Amino acid sequence: MAGAAPKVAGAIERVTIVGAGLIGASVALALRRALPGCRITGVDPDRAVRDALVPAIADAATDDLAEGVRDAQLVFVACPVGAMRQAFETIARAAPANCLVTDCGSTKSSVAVAAEEVFGADSPRFVAGHPIAGSEGSGPAAARADLFEGRIWLLCPAGSAQERMAARLGKLLARLGARVESIHPAAHDAMFAEFSHWPHAVAFALCASIADGAFADAARHFSGAGLRDTTRIGASSAPLWTGILLDNRESVLASARHFREKLDVLEEALETSDRAAIEALFAAASRWRRSVD
Amino acid sequence: MAGAAPKVAGAIERVTIVGAGLIGASVALALRRALPGCRITGVDPDRAVRDALVPAIADAATDDLAEGVRDAQLVFVACPVGAMRQAFETIARAAPANCLVTDCGSTKSSVAVAAEEVFGADSPRFVAGHPIAGSEGSGPAAARADLFEGRIWLLCPAGSAQERMAARLGKLLARLGARVESIHPAAHDAMFAEFSHWPHAVAFALCASIADGAFADAARHFSGAGLRDTTRIGASSAPLWTGILLDNRESVLASARHFREKLDVLEEALETSDRAAIEALFAAASRWRRSVD
């Protein structure tokens, strides 16, 4: 197997992006800038997305995954997490044996399980990944070549074979401006439930609450930067984030319970006009937030 | 009384800012730019704040409110809402009879009641106000001369006498770049509970939850723009926002109940893996959020 191990260092000439949404199309743009001679193929089921890809973002586009990865040296799977396993199955069958596959999903435990079942335990053909970058935008129109500049890109190698591949892949990701770090899938999912997935759910809930309240129009007119920032990620893709939350359901529910405890303290203190309790909670919050950045 | 009615149009030569935090100091900076010949006095109980005021932000600073408003033609009261009534009492006694007083508080019902009790019903000496501008910063160091540019500044005249004063004051506020609108105090407070005060509480609760969870440090390291934006206002002043929430307690609790209904739907749907219910809530949320801006 060692002779067939995918090469990532050196000249990469053919990369395929599976799922050309915000992340996939941004990977394509970033690769174009970093590897000007590289041929980039985008695979997406959506005709409008494919039309947007060529020639601005990719050299070719197809809705046929097997065809799209046929001669790829490197594949980024950037489809919704719920569609990963099926994509892996087709790629394992259709891509060259020395093609390296990585993904960009926001959850990692289910991806690691699917990859192990499809590619084998610690297969050098796969390394799970998660670029910590994005925006509330969706689709290739929201893509940016500099989306990963200065941002962390997490890799989750499952063993020593994947660690070697992660080291090679990491060199390429560094050329996209990313800061590469390794993490275990379970640790990843518990953490990101707490500070990404559940906060997305809170922003969605806040938007939904305002949207069907008495002041949905007034909020548009009068709201300041505070509301706009707090709710910005509530504009994110509903199906995408539904998939992420369900995929990481246990950890997300744990973070939800923890958040609800704070909300209970706050509402109880408001009901009883307990100034000290509110101020203590707010002070702990602002102390932490001021330590960020 | 008509002869003693405060003049705002024409040359204003002496303005006093009571409370030189983010908003008060920004008013001072904006006035300096709009009215270069105007003498600006800052009143603040905090020695460090007063030291920061002169000469960069104001011409004089004092901790003696009566002294600070003695010859003022216009007073902006920008102290915390809980301190407004006492400030009004001193100003009513110490300021010239033809001095116009306005405030910058984030709640308006309690301010309107206090102003009526201190200055009298529909007194031409007072108009309640609320500039819809700010940041998570605090104190004069966070002040900006352009904080009000393009932002709405709400005024709450209580009758025809105050409406005339609001029209005059509005001309000055327009010179600070603000877009002036009128609103009833009760309507103001119900609205701002929904799209400002309660969202601040949610951001504080989210920060507090992360802060004492297992991933407080990891969140600092790994968090992306999403978490930073969602929690930004959680860095705001704890005592200031405790005062605002308590001052507008009934409306804030109504908004809290409404938000909790959405949270209940979401958690129940996560518990039962009800994809359709989650996606419906997220879709309603993102539809509204995308209509903002």
Describe what you observe in this structure.
Chain A is of the alpha/beta class. Chain A has two domains: 2-183, Rossmann fold; 188-290, 6-phosphogluconate dehydrogenase C-terminal fold (Orthogonal Bundle), CATH 1.10.3660. The first copy, chain A, is built from twelve helices and eight strands. Chain A has an eight-stranded mixed β-sheet with strand order 3-2-1-4-5-6-7-8, with helices on both faces. In chain A, helix 4 (84-94) packs parallel to helix 5 (109-119) and helix 11 crosses helix 12. The N and C termini of chain A lie far apart (44 Å). Chains A and B meet through helix 7, helix 8, helix 9, helix 10 and helix 11 of A and helix 7, helix 8, helix 9, helix 10 and helix 11 of B.
What is the structure about, briefly put?
2 copies of one chain form a homodimer. Chain A is built from 12 helices and 8 strands.
Fill in the keyword field for this structure:
8-stranded mixed beta sheet, globular, 52% helix, 293 residues, 6-phosphogluconate dehydrogenase C-terminal fold, 2 domains, Rossmann fold, homodimer, 8 strands, 12 helices
CATH topology of the largest domain in chain A: Rossmann fold
CATH level-1 class of the largest domain in chain A: Alpha Beta
The CATH superfamily title of the largest domain in chain A? NAD(P)-binding Rossmann-like Domain
Q: Give the CA-CA distance, first to last residue of chain A.
A: 44 Å
Backbone structural class of chain A: alpha/beta
Radius of gyration of chain A: 21 Å
By oligomeric state, this entry counts as: homodimer
